[in-house]
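ok here's the first one, seq then C-alpha cells
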Amino acid sequence: MFNLAGEFFAVDAACPHMGADLSNGSISGNTLTCAWHHWQFHLRSGDGLTRDWARLTVHRLMREGDDLVLEIVDSTASTESPTGDLSGQDVTP
C-alpha cells in the first residue's frame, strides 16, 4: 500500500518481472519503480510502463471512518502476457 499525497493505493506486492518486493521500490509522481531491475508501473492504473503486459493489480481502498478497508482483487488474469507464455519474449529491461 502506498500513500501518494494523501491518496492511498494498494497494488500487488511482487513485481511481475522477477518477483521483487515492490515495497522496496521508489515512487516519483504516479510511477512506482521496482528496486531490482527498475521496471516501472503507473500507481493509479497498474499499467506497466516498461513492458505493457507487465501489469499490477490495483486493489480498491475504501475509507470507513478512520480506517482504510482493502478489497482484494483476483490478479491471476492481469499478470499474464497476451499469449500467456513468456518463452521467446524479451523480458529484460
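and now the second one, same deal
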Amino acid sequence: MISANEVPDATKLFFYELGPNVGYTYSLIIAKHFFITGSLSVSIDYNVTNYKGENDNFTRSGLSPNSLIRVFTGYNSKKSAISFTFTNSRVSLSSDKINSVALNTGNFRINYVRRFIPGPKTKRMIRPIDWFSK
C-alpha cells in the first residue's frame, strides 16, 4: 500500500502496463461432450502508475509480475453448449515492496450457447465478418 506520508490524499489511480506473457492451458475430456479446462498465464510488465489527489500527484514506474487463472467446465454438443467459468487476475501496480499495490479481480460466469443455421438475410448481414475470419 502507498504510505500516508507519501500520498496523503490520493483519490484516483491511473496506470498502464506493457510486457511479455507466457501461459499454459490444458483440457481434460471427461466423457463425450463434457470437459474441464484450466489455464494459467504470468507476465513481467513494465508499468507506470500515477496516483492523483487534490493537492499532490505521485508517479511510480518499474517491473511488476502479473497472473491470470481461468478454470472452466461444461458440456458441448452440435446444437448447444453450456459452460461455467471462473477467472482471477492479479495486476501488480508497483515494483516497490514497501509501497506495493495489487489489484485482484475475478468473476464467475455461466454461458449458454445455442447454434443455428443462418437464413439468407442473416448470411448477407454476417458476410463481412465471415470473410474476415477466413
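notes on #2: The CA atoms of residues 1 and 97 lie 9 Å apart. Residues 10-132 form a domain with the Aspartate Aminotransferase, domain 1 fold (CATH 3.90.1150).
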